[in-house]
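Something for you to look into today, if you have time. Could you write out one complete protein record for me, on any chain you like? The space below this message is yours for that.
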Amino acid sequence: MYAVVIVAGGTGSRMNNELPKQLIEINNKPVIVYSIEKFQNFNKDIQVIISLHKDYFDLFEKIKSRFNLKNIQLVEGGDTRYQSVKNALAVLNANTTIVGVHDAARPLVSLQTIQKTFTAAEQHGAAIPVIDMNESLREVNATESKAVDRTKFKVVQTPQCFKKDILLKAYDMPYSPLFTDDASMIEKIGCQIFITEGNKENIKITYPQDLIVAQTLLQ
């Protein structure tokens, strides 16, 4: 049994918009709906858990009705990503084996990326999608900057997928600001992360200009 936690707890302060980025519409459809539909197309029986700021519960119920979204559980998002995911993990079905954690603001994740990552998590316990860096990198400190080998670095995407018992063990740890994503927590408990190939279109909408890119790609 699969489950996916779609993290949508933010309020979109960097978007200069009254709505958070995950609820803004692109081509007449809220960003979060694209994400939900992708996972339900991947597996019609997947448990979908949305971790959303409580101020937007009523709006999301209207969105569910408008787009006829079924089999979705809504939980209250926390002040941090850590708390938002932890709240969602509390309602996992007992028979869940693999859990994906996905950013609601990544509406362009491909079915292939989802499939590869869930399959790899079944085989290896923990898996994340990545893509190659395509720009030059420099390491900067207080006194200098120097070029680094970009082939040694990857851009991390979501969904990040894990066997349920591994993810629950990681979320037994207290919160730390060093936990930038779920994979960093999994590593902290001593588990190795397997990487799979993501898709370049799977951008995270963060700033207003990202909406323009996403709109073009979603047409």
In short: The helical segments are 31-42, 57-66, 81-89, 111-124, 164-170, 182-188, 208-218.
